[in-house]
Amino acid sequence: MKAANALGWDLVPAEPNEQQWGQLARDIVMWLQFPAPHTGTSLHNHLESCGTLRPDWLRKEIPDSAAVPSKGTIATCIYKAMLTTGRIAVD
Question: What percent of the chain has pLDDT over 90?
Fold first, then answer.
């Protein structure tokens, strides 16, 4: 396991748990349900209004700008959000 961690692998539950789908990932999906333009600025405004912490990696992936992020970038951010809240400590 330590070798896998050194390579950037994480141990996460096989089935997503409530912590994983109930935080940042859920708030990103909620933002996609709104009819407003899906820009970086609208995402960051939405997360701020939800009181959701915005990690540095999210600010890099989807900057607070008028640009519309690609579907692949959004999917990657949802995946990363679920992974970062679902990590299991390995000794």
Answer: 62
CA-based angle 38:39:41, to the nearest 5? 125
User: Could you tell me if 27 and 46 are in contact, meaning their C-beta atoms sit under 8 angstroms apart?
Assistant: yes
CA angle 17, 23, 26 (to 5 degrees): 90
SS (H, E, C) the chain: CHHHHHCCCCCCCCCCCHHHHCCHHHHHHHHHHCCCCCCHHHHHHHHHHHCCCCCHHHHHHCCCCCCCCCHHHHHHHHHHHHHHHHCCCCC
pTM higher than the cut 0.85:
no
Residues 75 and 8: their CA atoms lie apart, in Å, by 19
Q: Whole-angstrom distance between the N-terminal and C-terminal Cα of the chain? A: 8
Work out the number of other CB atoms within 10 angstroms of the CB of residue 84: 17
